[in-house]
Fold this sequence. Notes:
SLC12A_fam, Amino acid/polyamine transporter I, potassium:chloride symporter activity, membrane
Amino acid sequence: MKIVIVAELPARRSVSASTLPLIKTSGQSSTAMISSRMAASEKNSASSPAMANSNIIDFQLLHSKREKAKKGFPPPPPPLIMALQVRFVEGSQVEVPFQSNDSGTIDHGDDVDDDYDHEYNNHRESFSLYEEDGSTSAMKMSHFIRRISLYNPIVSGGDDVDPNKQPIKMGTFVGVFMPCIQNIFGVLFFIRLAWIVGTAGVLQGFLITFICCLVTFTTCISLSAIATNGMVPAGGPYYMISRNLGPELGGAVGILFYFASTIAASMYLLGSAEIFLLYTVPQAKIFDDIYNCYRLIGTLLLAIVSCIVLAGVGVVNRFALPTIALVNGCILLTFIGFFININGSDSLKFCMVGDRIPNLQHWIDNNPGHYLSCNETDLRHLFCANVTETGSCDPYFLKSANEGTIKEMNAITGATSGIILDNLFSKYLDTNDFIQSNDSKMTNNEYEETSETYVVADMASSFTILIGVFFPSVTGIMQGSNRSGNLRDASRSIPVGTLAAQIITSIAYLLGVLCFGASMNGMFLRDKFGAGAYGRLAAAELAVPHPMVIVIGSFIASAGAGMQCLTGAPRLLQAIALDGVIPMLHYFQKSTKRGEPLRAIFVSIAICELFILIAFLESITALISQFFLMCYLSVNAACVLQSVLKAPSWRPRFRFYHWSLSMFGAGLCVAVMFMSHWIFACVAIIIGMIAYKYIEYRGAEKEWGDGIRGLRLAAASYALTNLEEGPVHTKNWRPQLLVLCTVSSDRTSIENEQIVAFASQLKAGKGLTVLASVLNGKFLNMLAEVAATKMIMKEVCRRMKIRGFCEVLVAGDITEGMSALVQTSGLGGLKHNTVIMSWPQKWRNGNFEAVKFVETIRLTTAAKSALVVIKDVQQFPSNKEKIVGCMDVWWILHDGGIMILLAFLLRQNRVWRNTKLRIFTVCQSEEDLDKVRESMKTFIYHLRMDATVDVVCLTKYDISEYAHELTLKREQRQKMLDQLGLTDRQKDIDVDNAISNSTSGVQSGAELPVQNRTNLLTLDNLFKKDKTNEGNEATSNAAAEQCEEEKLPITSSQTYNIRCLQRAKKLNEAIQSRSRESDLIFLNLPDPGKNGYEKFYMEYIEVMTTGLNRVVLIKGTGSEVVTIFS
């Protein structure tokens, strides 16, 4: 890894050697770590004049190519190559932007000579427009173009890769066209296409083939557009899908495509085993159960193919050329045979007993070498238990013999015979139905007696089932893109080679349907394994010069297709592992020195063997059809997404595409999935969903500029522009939260994280959540602090499972910062309507906290936002706790019902779910008590909330002289404490000390001002009497006399304050009498009133909430947020 770190410093500032270990550790240094080194660098600047005078320092931490070759270090994969630029600015802050290859930074790797690095350094200062501005990090175009020319798209993993050994590069024909042709022209053309035509008929058979080919054609168009929209590194279709649909969808589809490619290898090898056992060497059936024979031969073929794959992609390519020549030659000979046999042929005959086909293959398997002629005498050996006793014969056989309907028929009738008219329509069968010319059904007893004498259907057939059977025949269009890492020009080779292969194979398949339907007897076509003709392959019999040429050629071609699948699938798995989206696959990142993903190859072989053991070809084809269709669906969806969003980066060279065609292809994929086999379709979807959720939960976060993110941006933009600003209807109102947080001074945690937990517990209402914090300072000097703070907030959100946003604002004044947040947070109609903050615990230490808190209340009121204040936030539960008890709402002032709504939402969370909701309201007349209670019960009932209702009566009262004087003492005491510069924390100790010191000063002859002496005496009398005889009426009178002697004024505002505190005390007593044991209490937050009374307001709240556990103070906007109407 090459890390070029450019450090730009102002004069008389340097970077000391203490920063070097930080940089050498990794390419992912955090801003917090770099900031921690700045103190040391500044300390060394004074002792190092030479360093202090340097303005630009280039650190190039490089390993030479010789050292890398010696240690065997591989070139890093593109997603992991990081370009790190560290810029030191004023205030010892650091800006550390990271860019990876996926974001556009192209690393030139190890192929650049040391001369280039020296040249880069020599021209470093000339990058700027002016000589004196040489600190810019810009790059000359010549250097940028050189990096592009040396860009290597190969992603190779592991420490065993030889950096001096370049992978084999292939062109369009060898790298794309041949693998696609070989996989598309696989085994199913020879062993299943004729049977599909005989069962579905020419019309529906042609439609089945056309639908399948249309799916792959539209996918090829979409694939060509995506492949030409930039470079395609290793990973092929997975890379294209993941970079266009995001890591979650890309990884999920990539896993499905890997399984499809691996299981397809088992399908091809089982097809080869079927050809070998049924048509090449029938004597190799060493087991009575044919499927056990398939398992044995398939495993042996897998072992042979695996050895070739392990030898490397070069050896596979050597085998690919002869195998593709064989498959193309076999298909060509089949079409030539159609024209040669246009008038029919007597070379192949099959036997008919009435309307049924006798199972001669079963006879020859049990009696090797003893062939039966198609006449009554020979067939008695098959249908009679005793050839001499007519009574032991099959009744249908005797009936056919009596009617003279036992006969031989030509399998190849030729196109001139008009047989296509008989084969035009479908003849679908159920399992165990006779292969016969009429539509009669077989009973269970008949099947037990005749299953070994007549040919019967081994599976049910229908139009949709046959689509699932045939669809794997047209797959393989992505085998070329699987090798994108080994292509010289992937963006050119993939569209040309893939489209050419798809069009040629589609034409061949459609012509094959017509050839088989127009030249062969329908009865013989429906005989899947040719049992009526001693196991003859229909496609081979039609071809020239000899059927065995086609049989051997199809056997080798099918095995070759399996080899191609086992070559591409491991590389796909390695590409997924190298991306890091699925952490559990990291084991498969390593490669051999030849670049072979050995571990991925071994696991692919194991999966292939598991599906070979299934042995039933039709089940395997139905399953892999779903996997391939999911992948094709994703390719089409990616093309639609990019085309519709019209992203600036969407500039494919391939012009012959349109989003509507890709949309049609995507819909066709979904339709074919559920038409062919809905159960397997659900299985594929479930596997994809599991992979998606796993990647979302455990996968590394990737930003690839994918289309899903673009779609979200487009949808968000559309929604925001259509979301009108203004009042929200009551039914749609939900708390959109702005949570004001305070980060610790060391930027390591959020103070009182319980406030964030409380916000997360309110999220039953969903809606917007913004965590915001205000830092005091200058933004340009606090970039690192902002980044660190936002990182901490995001980590807390992740831990609290909050889906929201984090904002950090730097302001010269905290109050002004709060004001900016309250005013500007949100966008358009998506703005916060509720602010959450904690009660300032240290408001008595000076006047700043009280003023800031009250000012925030005024700001939220002006912004028409509700305010939620959490008092004693440390006592609130975390998200892991569960509270059992009561949740009390003291509904004193009408606030639009926000307290009731928040209590309801809070109870939806598991933390508060087991609490009981109680609602209290206050009336001033005992006569209205019952009426208010009934009205409240009715209202809560119509709100559909489970809560109990109670009404508390608080009558008007007179303030006693004692309460009047006591309050005056408290107010004047606070004023004198302020004059003495004391705080409440010091009052119990420092007041007496101040008085005694002042008194001693007087006794020693020092003069005190009269006002100070008066204040001290008054404070002494008030304070002592307040603490000792607060409830004594005589003391109260003495205090009043003292006030009169010192002429302390009693103003109307003081009288009002006295009444307010008395009212708060009375309310607190009422609340404590009913909610002392409650686990949470909701209270109305009163209006703070005019300026200058901030500390009195704080004292008022303290009196009102004294002795209460977990208090939430709420100030609504007055707008209704709950409604009784539907």
